[in-house]
Automatic annotation (TrEMBL), chains A, B:
One of its GO terms (biological process) is isoleucine biosynthetic process. It comes from Novipirellula galeiformis. The gene is leuA_2. Residues 6-274 form the Pyruvate carboxyltransferase domain. Its EC number is 2.3.3.21. Pfam families: HCS_D2, HMGL-like, LeuA_dimer. The keyword Amino-acid biosynthesis applies. One of its GO terms (molecular function) is 2-isopropylmalate synthase activity. It catalyses: pyruvate + acetyl-CoA + H2O = (3R)-citramalate + CoA + H(+). This is Citramalate synthase. It comes from the Bacteria. Keywords: Acyltransferase, Amino-acid biosynthesis, Branched-chain amino acid biosynthesis, Isoleucine biosynthesis, Transferase. InterPro entries: 2-isopropylmalate_synth_dimer, AIPM/Hcit_synth_CS, Aldolase_TIM, Citramal_synthase, LeuA/HCS_post-cat, LeuA_allosteric_dom_sf, PYR_CT.
Length: 528, 528
């Protein structure tokens, strides 16, 4: 039986950009569009030309790039009431964008037509039909039926009329939008079937556009595909307004790897998905979502002695698919729930598993440290150095003689802020003593600056690394301000990112230890 | 038609704690358990007594708290092979936990029995049955069928046998676990029906336990409930291993507000859900997920001219439910009055809602501070003082002239630790100047000690208060060590406990501000 192709329509650059905290520059959009084309996305919705200059520029610039088989779409609304399509600025902007596809959104819900647009139901149909006719003259036309499911619930006959108006006007795709995100899968299935049946005599295919307000966007989109939809609209990583659009990563993965009978992205490999996901996060300056299905850093991360023991025997017993299929990888976490098998997996990576005596020493040390508040899951580099220390292969690149931070507020009375932080450190590098001081926004920032000052002559490669994240956690809540503090630092250079940890009752000491590990890890990597 | 009750089983403290980066102290677990009981969660799985001391302590301590109708469950595995139930340490640990419920997990998948546990299929059935019989003597027994869907796929007859063994042994609940998270909704529906039918002659109810590896945990759990399951196992905010367990927030909301014919939490109001979600994130020291369905800060946040216009006319046109139902609120992102916390509720508490001008000033100040990283949900005392300042009824009991902390390690070479922290402060109390210094375990501990030294002559009532918790949070992750730091302090006297907050790039300044608010709150209370 031939697999049925489901086309993927990406609106990361338009609907996705409406997510809180998301803002793409023109360059960002062009870069993302190229990455989408590389993996074989069928439709790339680039923006809303009527709404802003940046989107107009996007459509101009994107023509200079090779997007393979992917088609760029320009998005816009139906013509204004009491105006002809040819005179409407939105219509003109769409035509001027000169894209192979145009996506036209129109009102489906009778209430929206009469109360929000303030037109009669008939006028709305005319707006849809005339806009469709005008825009489909020189472009493939996709019609987005806004609020389709709510509109169908309120007035099913009218909702179908709006679809027919668009189809009669020349739309070849009718995408049913669950704009409020509140429809349930069984209802999506029923209504999608009804729409397909009602439009049986028209030369159209049906698409689906879901939002995640009930955490059912993926289920709804799959239900629509099962009901006959052949286009899925969504965004990479599910970014978008409110709870986001459907995550195309999940949709592509589910359609290609979990469902039977469908093919996506022209049958291409899904291996680039993980990197694509991270690229979009980085470009949008958003945090990665570790627990994101398929491509999250934790998606195949196993903790808890009970599970890791089994994984070491056969991965399929605890993984529903092979992480490599989407470019992800298995991770074994070290934690307080780790028995011997967690350590084994990490030690395998370090090629130590045959040395039982060493393994026992490492395990004993990990347990000792965990009881003090250490946790090595986000501190793989500190764990790495721990193994080296126990195995005798740790070579410190400098020695801390002393360090102190002075911080506070010198002057709370004047207009200028007296808040300050200074770090003073003394290190030994080889035979030389280095005494340095630095200012900073706060104590840890100052310590980091002082450390780099002291080491950069001897170790210029430190300029390649930067601190990207800093977390502080009190690990014994309930003891007030005398509790143990856990500091996690994330560092990165162009090849990898690594986590280190420090624990102490004194946050300055905890921060210093985490910083030293971060730097030593880099130096161990780069000075063979 | 009567609504069917669906029981909610929370494993935030056990399965949820296996999520990456999640670590709960004993106190954290007790606090969360109480909050779960308050909203009416039916079953609270507290931990795995065989695996660690902290969980044993939990079951001991939780008996001292009033959990209303909620039942605490202790979790454990079937007895070891070649050992009688009564001699098995895991069995004994479960009985010693003394909980009203016990949750027993056993192998369903023939492969797991023979290759992982290395027992015959018959022995596995005996292990299940004998463990169930032993544990159900004095507790309600819930049986978790691990890998049920994969096991049923591999060998359906054997999978059913494992369920029957547990039921015959005395389990009254059989929860079907999609442990790998890879099953699709239609299959969950089919297999759940098959299990219910096969167990028709037994006095059992069926539960469902899903993981989110395909982003279908909610859909799968709903499918199982539609198929006849009457218990849903999950975690608050969906925390848990890999991609997490099903999010009980979404499940409760969907069952109560979206699906027809079901009732949850004994019909209680869902208004506490939003606060509960945030409380669990804060306690786990995890970031809130803004786009989280129902309770996320962005779940009802509207952006984009096209939508806001319509919202102002009629909220239901763009919201699938009223956010107030789950204790969330609508936010209009273009409005200057969008605030993240439930300002209205707090202002109502202070009886200010009739003073519109004052309310506007307070709102404006809150928005300003929130943009800097403040959040008043766990800092009610700081909010209280903020209101007083704006209302003109704040009377500072002392004035900060300056303060500084010196901390670090003086001597990393000797045997004695050179780690130190000293605080030096200068305050004005009335007409007198106080200059004091104190040592501490760390900077904040030292500042607190110095502050008390300086104020205790004039204000002896400060001896009644103590600091009970201290949380630190970086509020602008991604900026390395120059980010804003949010410090939350919890203080208590014999009458109440109160939270205060400080925010700054400099952790010392943030800590000082939170400490000053904590002390001023006490002094405002006690010096009329």
């Amino acid at each position: 039986m031939n697999a049925k192709p489901i086309l993927i329509y990406d609106t990361t650059l338009r609907d996705g950009s409406q997510g809180e905290g998301v803002s793409f520059s023109l360059q960002d959009k062009l870069n993302i569009a190229e990455r989408l084309a590389e993996i074989g996305i069928d439709f790339i919705e680039g923006g809303y030309p009527l709404s802003n200059e940046k989107d107009v520029a996007f459509f101009r610039e994107i023509k200079k790039r090779d997007l393979g088989q992917s088609k760029v779409c320009a998005f816009g609304m139906t013509r204004r009431k009491s105006m002809q399509a040819k005179d409407d600025p939105g219509m003109k902007a769409l035509v001027e964008a000169g894209t192979p596809c145009i996506t036209l959104v129109g009102k489906t819900w009778d209430y929206h037509a009469t109360e929000v647009l303030r037109v009669t139901l008939e006028e709305n149909l005319a707006m849809i039909g005339e806009s469709a006719e005008f825009l489909s003259r020189n472009a493939e036309l996709i019609y987005d039926a806004e609020h389709f499911f709510d509109g169908y619930h309120a007035n099913p006959e009218y909702a179908i009329k709006t679809l027919k108006a668009a189809a009669a006007g020349g739309a070849t795709w009718l995408s049913l939008c669950d704009t409020n995100g509140g429809t349930l899968p069984e209802r999506v299935s029923e209504v999608t079937r009804a729409a397909i049946e009602a439009l049986a005599d028209y030369n159209v295919q049906i698409g689906i556009h879901c939002h995640n307000d009930c955490e059912l966007a993926v289920a709804n989109s799959l239900a629509a595909v099962d009901a006959g939809a052949t286009q899925v609209q969504g965004t990479i990583n599910g970014i978008g307004e409110r709870c986001g659009n459907v995550d195309l990563i999940s949709m592509i993965s589910n359609l290609a790897l979990k469902k039977k009978g469908f093919t996506v992205l022209g049958g291409r490999s899904l291996k680039p998905l993980t990197q694509l996901s991270r690229f979009v996060y980085e470009t949008a300056n958003l945090q990665w979502r570790n627990s994101q299905p398929f491509v999250g850093q934790s998606a195949f991360a196993h903790k808890g002695g009970m599970h890791v023991h089994a994984i070491n025997k056969a991965a399929k017993t605890y993984e529903h698919i092979d992480p490599a299929l989407i470019g992800n990888e298995r991770r074994i976490l070290v934690s307080e729930l780790s028995g011997r098998s967690n350590i084994t997996a990490l030690a395998t990576k370090h090629k130590l598993e045959d040395d039982r005596e060493l393994m026992d020493k490492i395990l004993a040390e990990v347990v000792r440290l965990e009881n003090q508040g250490y946790q090595f899951e986000n501190a793989g580099a500190s764990f790495d150095l721990l193994i080296k220390r126990i195995a005798g292969s740790y070579t410190p690149h400098f020695e801390t003689i002393k360090y102190r931070v002075v911080a506070g507020d010198r002057n709370t009375e004047g207009e200028a802020s007296g808040v300050f932080a200074e770090a003073i450190i003394k290190l030994k590098v080889g035979d030389a003593l280095w005494f340095d001081a630095a200012e900073g926004h706060g104590p840890v920032n100052a310590l980091d600056a002082a450390l780099r000052k002291a080491l950069s002559d001897e170790y210029p490669q430190l300029a390649e690394m930067r601190l990207t994240d800093y977390k502080v956690r009190v690990v014994d809540s309930g003891s007030g301000t005398a509790a143990s503090i856990r500091v996690n630092i994330e560092s990165t250079d162009e090849h990898e990112s690594w986590g280190t940890i420090g624990v102490s009752e004194n946050i300055i000491e905890a921060s210093w230890n985490a910083l030293v590990d971060a730097v030593e890890y880099k130096l161990h990597k780069s000075t063979p």
